[in-house]
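[job 4417] fold queue: 2 targets
>>> target A
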Amino acid sequence: MSYKNTLRAVDTEKALGSLGIEFKTQGSYAKFDCPNPDCEGQASIKAYGDKKNLYYCPKCKSSGHIIGLAMNHKGLTWEDANQLLIKNALGVNAKKITEALNLNYELQYHDFLKNKGISEEICSKQEIGIPKGKTMLSGCVAFVVRDETAMKVAYYGIRIKDNNPVFHKSFNPELYLYNFCSLESEGDVYFTTNIFQCVKLIEEKKQAIYNFGLPYLSPNHLALMDNLPRIVFLIEEPLVKTFAIQLAQSHNGFYRFNR
């Protein structure tokens, strides 16, 4: 697993715990003693969302990432530290959202979506568009996220300028699968890590789900998919091995990988 994928995959609190680093949580951050031996300050590391698993100490201005912490704390090489985190710190303990989101953006169709091959009609049906006015998702394509009961739980954004995800700290993408609530009991279900591909599949009248671009399947993703009899994975080649290992260990239905 690459550096960037490891940062996205490992659970911050599990990683810090496995390294023996004491910490306190504060919102979407975990705070711990600065790893710089000459500093007595507190460093903060992002637990989820944008810039996950990157830390910064405001006192000595030092910064780094969770793999570097593992290397220094355990005296490991980069590869060994990377593997240690993957082995011990996948998955999350976050709680699901229990109340419907009482927020409604006015979503507008945009040429960016047209250029992606996504029609205005499917955007209206799936509640997709550029939020009107100044919001936390300004400059993003916003998608309404619903849980498996179809309750609206969040807005998820893809920033137009760089295709990076943006979402509120209360939303944890490892706990949901986009469009899962619309699935029927029979037929192939297409799984993709590209939300625009997912929407195009839906427009083609295919059953499709999306895991918010994560380079792995969380325990909750696996639990949701456990009763799906047939899954077709449309993912990039570097992810196939990781997904296949996870599925072999937990999924009893039929699945295949398509290029």
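>>> target B
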Amino acid sequence: MFSIMAEASKKRKDLSLQEKQRILECYKKLPKMSQRSAVVHLKISQPLLCKILKNRSDIETSALTNENTDRKRAQSGKDSQVESALKIWFSNVREKNASINGLLMHQKAEELAKTMGKERFSATDGWFNRWKKRENIVYKHMQGAE
């Protein structure tokens, strides 16, 4: 009896940001129809489609801000204020085609934390690597940079 109960209940399947974007694109291409008809074409559940449509602007914004499209759930680090300030600083420096390395990023993170009054913040290697992964940051040779 237990095996029958286990088969009857479905496991939760989280979709990545990339999969949600693909669903939105497919939904836009469909002719005007009810959500009930659309879920048959998209092969997803109606509550899932409703949730994706409700969060459409967040999904599209995340794609435009270079977030990691493979992530399934939004995660935050130990201090979201410092992380968002570092992301803004990083984006501004990258727009100027300046070269950035890990040591400079560590120092800037700690400097930003001190200016925000976060004395206990420490930019450890583990935190830094997880932050880069969350923000989809990779070090590559800049085009035109020497």
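[job 4417] complete. Note on B: DSSP finds eight helices and no strands in the chain.
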